[in-house]
Amino acid sequence: MGEGLDLTLLPGAVSPLVAAEVAGAPRRCRVLAAFPTCLYLDLGAHERVLAVLASDAVALPIGIRLAVPSTEVRWGVEPGAEVVVGGGRVRLPRADVVAARVLRPGRVRPAQRRTGAEGVLPDAGVLGDLAQDLTAAALAGRPVDPAVRGLVGVGRGLTPSGDDALCGVLLTLGAIDLPESRCGLSSVRTAVLGALPLTTSLSAALLVAAGTGYAVPEVARLVTLVVGAGSGDAAVASGAPASAERADLTDLTDLTYLVGRVLAIGHSSGHDLLSGVSGALRAVDAHLSASRTRPQPHEGAHRG
Amino acid sequence: MADHVELRTGAYLDSVTLMQVSRTVAAAPGVEAAQVAMATELNLEVIRGMGFEVPASAPNDLVVAIRGDEGGIAAGQAALESALTQTRSAASGSRDLGEAPAARTLGGAIRLSGADLALVSVPGEHAVTEALDAVRAGVSVMVFSDNVSVEDEVRLKDAAAAADVLVMGPDCGTAVVAGVALGFANVVQAGSVGLVAASGTGAQQVMCLLDAAGVGISHCLGVGGRDLSSAVAARSTRQALAALAADPETTSIVVVSKPPAPEVLADLEAYAATLGKPVHWATLGAGRPDLTSAVEAVLAATGREVPEPWPSWRPVVLDEQVSDPASTTESTAAQGSSLRGLFCGGTLADEAMLVAGEVVGGIRSNIPLRPELALGADLRDAGHVVIDFGDDAMTQGRAHPMIDPSLRLERIAAEAADPTCGVLLLDLVLGHGAHADPAPELADAIRSARATAAADGRHLDVVVSLTGTEGDPQGLQTSAARLVEAGAVVELSNAAATRTALRLLGHDVSAPSTGGSAHSTGGSAHSTGESAHWAGVGSQAAAAGEPLHALLSRDVSVAAAGVSLFSDALRAQAVPVTEAAWQPPMAGTAADLGRVLADSRREAANAEALRRMTAAGADLVDVRPAHEALGLERGTFLHAGPPIEFARASGPLKGALIGAMLFEGLADTAEEAEAKLERGDGITLEPCHHRDAVGPMAGVISPSMWVYELRDEVHDNTSWCSLNEGLGKVLRYGAYGPEVIDRLRWMNTVLGPILQQAVRARVEQQGSIDIKAIIAQMLQMGDEGHNRNRAGSLMLLRELLPTMITADASSTDVAEAVRFSGANEHFFLNLGMPACKLSTLAAHGIPGSSVVTTMARNGTDFGIRVSGTGDAWFTGPANTPEGLFLGSYGPDDANPDIGDSAITETAGIGGFAMAAAPAIVKFVGGDVPFALRATQTMYEITVGEHTAYQVPILEFRGTPTGIDVAAVARTGILPQINTGMAGRVAGTGQVGAGLVTPPAQCFTQALGDLAARSDEGLPTPAR
User: Fold this and answer.
1) Nearest Cα residue to B788 out of B902, B901, B920, B925
2) Which residues of chain A are within 8 Å of residue B570 when distances are taken between CB atoms?
3) b/e per residue, B460-472, with b = 16+ CB within 10 A?
4) Which residues are in the ATP-citrate synthase/succinyl-CoA ligase C-terminal domain (chain B) (predicted)?
5) Cβ contacts (< 8 Å) between B249 and chain A: which residues?
């Protein structure tokens, strides 16, 4: 850091998802994990985690984010240590992180499903199949508990692969402007909330955020674009080759760039999340296609 | 007591920083007066006005003027150094080996950081250049700078609309984007009201009133004070409205403006009705509601309660020193009858004039509501006066009064002594960007003003319109308390403050009826029948989903050029900021730069120039005598650099020409040769470049000399260069002794023919030798291709050896030819140069291109030619290189820069590839970090990167290629050239090697020519 800057006060932009705890009465919080770019702090409840993020960290929606990169900060704490959070700041041994403003975390925006852009997503694999089954059940109003429990906490990592895929499903359902997806999102969210003890605190916190559409900005933007930036009509196009339904070129360039950014998240988190998105979209498109080809004109005729 | 005045060149700092530095220096013990400022006309006037004598200077020089006793001057200088060091380290931070230097332009800062919002606060004449950078990078930009012409504003905003980015400004003081306060902005609650503001302080007033009523803000998009004028026709306002209409956080919109052009407002209202969200209008004007009424209407429409009354603070004890504003009781002391409004906020001044004008009639001002009310140059009048100290005319060459209040404080003191002044009406605006704690200083001024009046037997009331929120860094209550202590009445509402002032003058004032008079448009009702144009804009924005590249829904990071105060304010809000190390362009180039950068052909033309430069081939196809290859006739001598007559030639060029005369048998002695050359009979001197050839150092090519012939098959061009003579006493360094001439003869009779056979045989057997491929490889082997050619020379020899040793010549001659070639580390230079010439030749002659295609020196003049300016040379006196010297030679022995070898830098290698050749510093001077920095700095002035020539240590980044005249003028960065140094005296030879730059005037002249040829003013093609 340059001289002349106050080394003991680090301004931070705080996410509204954790702003209340940062602003609230000071209390001791355990350090769950410490990485060069970020710190994870236990806010008390299992699924309440505060991430202290350097500017080069993945911008998790549950964080207080600094404007300086990790090369210019040293947290000075180890996992298991306790730090004080509250009164508008996080007190670290070397410096106080001060909540200088509330930031706008990335959030998916509901849009009409337009096919064609999902071709940019990587191969989804087994996680994609699981995500597809879950989404299909959710859209059809069938029970989702078994499928959710098949994913929560499954796999390796601080955010297990199953959770990442589940985030992809939650975000996709939140990004589609359709009554069935709103109902489906609600049932998956309820099932997830019941299963949170099965996974890590950090992952649980991110699942809760994804349930309300919040995610890393690149993820939120990518999901929004993949859902709605294509040019095809999902109800008609199901099964048609993707190349016939391409999104326009600038969007695709943007998308390819975003996919690269998302794949760079974690060891496999970005990939797993996109597998979830990919599988969920397959289910959404099948659902839309079926509801179109199925009885519509027929029904109409009967009702006269 | 003594005066210390010094000038520092190349030390640009912004005016706000210098104001702080000046204060620090002036506060040092023993200093009586001090001023540190850039040497602009205005600043020089101020400094001379302080009694300092300032030597001749240019506007980009820094003037340091300190007055004090001996110790005081020393203390002042120490304070200066420490203050300057602090500003530099705060801006630059620590830099690691090989880390790119800070970008000089906003475009560079955006590229480095990937910022999604830009902030420009450089002096007005340069602001458009920086802002266009942002627009071209697809980034919305806030232009704080004022003094931007309306034509430039329109041009900038049209470009922005085409790129779907927003220009907030010029002269935009305030914006809040997704909770981030830019420029002067108050800390307000987040909420659902979106503002579009053609007025900075007006927007601040509206936000603070809303905040006081418990209503939060989603965004406040500034659009610049002139956006609602006829000329600008709401270009930015339309975009801002569309963006807010598409923003899910925003549920209602308020447009804040100084008096708008009626037809623009009418169009805009029609457009607003199509947005599907209610739009309220806080647009000042005669007969229109004041800002407070407009806010009350917004509150009523959103079902919020209107605070009754708006917050105000009054002195607790109303003694005879303070009138009771609630009554109109006359106090015993005499009181003037005129209102004197001294404002920092232009819109607040406008509003005060509108409100007061209804009661007391016309008010004279520097920003009059009607032209006949304009104040004279002295800004004095015995009647009612309102002055805006933030007006363009008052801020030229100084900081805005919200940062530097000194002008207004002086005027407050002057009013206190004026018996016609009855009430002082002042504004004070808090928030980010403003003075850190302005209330105490203003309170002191108020206190002493009242005391001055009292001592004079008069009574002076003071009313302050305080725009701020409790969240502001200065604190609303604290600030109000300080002012009240000084005897002022303080109001949050500017309109209310004005009415209070009128009451204190004894006027009968009634508050306006609220609610009904303010109006709004839009809402959920669908309106039809709008003009197709407006409707078109709206639907376009809607189709894109997230206008302005989703600016409003992301957490922004900022790139900034100009006043570092604003960057600091952003950092305090945890916003990542990348600052450009901005400097003014080369003196006198602002107007030409504007025209060249506006040339619609330039971007594509430069891209084409780069494409051709990097695509050009360079194959060695033959070696033959110059008379054969170039058609050189006896008596014609080619030389390096731009054209020159013998009389003006430097020592080394003269020496080389004398040598060539001897070699050609045109003279028997050096004296005879010189005499003939001086008379010029039968002798023709011509630049190598005029024949598409190049020559190192003196570059003399005579008809009998042998030359390499290189072909660019892609563009069907051919270039030639002489054979290298080795190092030491050689013709190209101006030596012409017998050993030099003997060597040339041997090269003609032995070396040339052997190389010819070798090359021809090689071409026959395997095809031509790809020189470009060797350059690409040598850069990865520690060469830079100008002053270090070791690897290149060995690779070339490897290519030639098989056919050299089988040439039809005696084995002794072959052995000597091989030994001579192998012993010469610069064997390759004479092939690298024509390869570079082919590259730049391909890029020459593209209309509109500002890429340099020739840099060459003849030892007297440095000349450049530019792609878009035809065959014209732009010349200036050649500089003398600085570097390391051979043996006992020193700086006095060195001749000014000479040779065509700067063609290597022109094509993206040599000094531009220094990072690839760190060992070069042992030869030319400097250190390894310098070598890395040199290459990285050159990216600032080049149009792109070479596709084949790469620098391993920079992650195989392409070398900086295609010098852009406009970028050179803009950044003041001159091309870095590595070069050999010739002895000053004819016949000496090489004395060293070093680093040199071209004279700046080559580039400023070329820029002038480009400006004269620019297509600016022609209708731009429809997008």
Assistant:
1) B920
2) 67
3) bbbbbbbbbbeeb
4) 342-501
5) 104
Closest partner CB to B90 (pick from A2, A109, A221): A2
Q: Which residue of B has its CA nearest to A16?
A: B190
Question: What is the DSSP pairing of strand B706-712 with strand B619-625?
Answer: antiparallel
- How far apart, in whole angstroms, are the C-alpha atoms of residue B839 and residue B473? 58
- What is the interface pTM, i.e. ipTM, of the complex? 0.82
Dump pLDDT digits (tens) for B50-66: 899 988 887 778 889 99
Which CATH topology does B844-1013 take? v583 fold (3.90.1700)
Contact A2 B94 (CB under 8 A): yes
With an 8 Å Cβ cutoff, are A13 and B573 in contact? yes
User: B571 to chain A: nearest residue by CA?
Assistant: A67
CA distance B426 to B200: 17
Indicate the class that CATH gives domain A9-102. mainly beta
**DSSP string of B575-636, one letter each residue:** --EEE----PPSTT-HHHHHHHHH-TTHHHHHHHHHHHHHH---EEEEEEEHHHHT-PPTTE
Is the torsion defined by CA of B857, B858, B863, B869 positive or negative? negative
More confident residue, B921 or A230: B921
The residue in chain B having the minimum alpha-carbon distance to the alpha carbon of residue A12 is: B574
Our CA-based measurement puts residue A130 at a distance from the nearest CA of chain B, in whole angstroms, of: 31
At the topology level, CATH places domain B625-834 in Enterococcus faecalis V583 fold (3.90.1710)
B87: closest chain A residue by CA:
A4
Per-residue pLDDT reduced to its tens digit, B661-670: 999 999 999 9
Nearest-Cα distance to chain A for B237, in Å, is 24
Does the domain at residues B312-504 carry the CATH identifier 3.40.50.261?
A: yes
Interface probe with A: pick from B88, B571, B578, B579, most Cβ of A within 10 Å:
B571
Domain with CATH 3.30.70 in chain B: 2-92
What are the angstrom distances between the C-alpha of B314 and each of B439, B468, B489, B830? 15, 17, 5, 85
Which secondary-structure segment (H or E) carries B950? strand B942-951
